[in-house]
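Example record used in the benchmark description.
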Amino acid sequence: MSKLQVTWGGDPLWEAISDIPLEQFELTEFERARARELVYFQPNLSIRRVIFVGTPHRGAAAASQLVGRLSSTLVRRDSGDSASLVRAIERNQSLLSRIGGSRIPTSIDMLEPTNPMLRAIDGLPLADWVHLHTVAGEWTFTIGPGRGDGVVPLSSAVHPRAESELVLNASHTAVHRRLETANEVERILEQHIAEAAQLGWGPPSHAQGGFTPQVEGEAGHVPPPVPVESDLRDIPPAD
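Model output (structure tokens):
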């Protein structure tokens, strides 16, 4: 969820779901608007920094194993959202043709390394103004090839744009509880407060650059972010 807050959506995300344009689906106006909102979006302008802790950017092999598949069958959704999704799928059998057929995929399904939606999310353009940091675990055993925290491979937990990277000797369920993790998060937040005060950060303006992806069914682009008054100017520098 944090990553989707700092990326642009667009056609690549929809194409991971279906090879048929959204307009050709039999949907109510509410369902169509909801689908468009979930696929075509812009970064959250209020976010300047993200800390990823044990995040499986490129999936986890455990999701493809028996434990992952069993866990997926236990996932239950909100009754309102589930009913709406089921009705849409019943009317449009090809809606999820590229991510699991007629069954609505769960968040666990989407952690399979070969999942088209996961791969599309991993390739979404990140906002240029956002600073990224990584905290990952490296344990004695990991499901799948290479090193990792027992669940998430290290190759999936790291991000090429991360400005700092801390790898701990910890399992996936322990990495977020380690004192080293808390100290690293505190360090990053103190750095963020100091930079915000020094630079007078507010939501980014278009002049700061950024990727402008193609939007649904058009040759145009997502409009640039609208600059607003900063709410961080009065934060004092960190000691």
